[in-house]
Amino acid sequence: MVVAGGVAWLLPAGAQTVAFGVLFLPVCALTGLWVRPADLAMGPVVVPLAYAIGVLPVAEGGGAGFTGQVMGLVTTLALNAGWLYGGTLVAGVIVTVRKVRLMSAARRKARSAPRRPAAEQAAPRTDHEAGPSGRRAPRSRVAP
C-alpha cells in the first residue's frame, strides 16, 4: 500500500485519493487470498492498517509539522471511508468463504476417517504391550 500511495502521489491532486482507493481494492482481495489458513481472522484486521499507512503520501491538508500531517491523515481517512469499508468488506468476504471451505473440508475428512471401537480409543495399544501375534502380552502379577 505504500507503493500504491507513492504511485497515487505522482498523479494530479484531485485523482490521488480515487486512484489510491482503486488500487486498494485488489490489494484487499489479494490479502484475503494470500493470508495463511491459521491467520484467516487477521486478514480483515490488517487491511485498514495498511490503508492508513499507505495513504500517508496522498493525505490531504498535510500542513507543516507533525500535527499537520496527523490532521491531514485523519481528514483523508474520514473523507475516504467508503474505500476503506469496501476493501475491508472484500477481504472479510474472501476470508469468510475460505474459512467455511476449510471447516467443511475438515468435516468431510473426519467423516471419511475409519472409526475405531470405543475400547481401543480409551486405551490405545503401544508396541511394547503387543506380542508378535499382535495380541497383548499377559501382565505379570505381583502378590500383594
Q: Mean of residue pLDDT? A: 81
Percent in helix: 55-70%
Strand content: under 5%
Distance between the termini: 75 Å
For the largest beta-sheet, the strand count, sense and barrel status come to: none
Q: How many individual helices?
A: 6
Low-confidence stretches: none
Rough shape? elongated
Class from secondary-structure proportions: mainly alpha
Extended strand count? 0
Written description of the protein model:
This protein has 144 residues and is mostly helical. Helices cover 63% and strands 0% of the residues. The protein contains 6 helices and no strands. Helix 1 runs antiparallel to helix 2, helix 2 packs parallel to helix 5 and helix 3 (43-54) runs antiparallel to helix 5. The protein starts with a helix and ends in a 22-residue tail after the last helix.
Please outline the helices and strands.
Elements lengths: L1 H8 L6 H19 L8 H12 L10 H15 L1 H32 L5 H5 L22
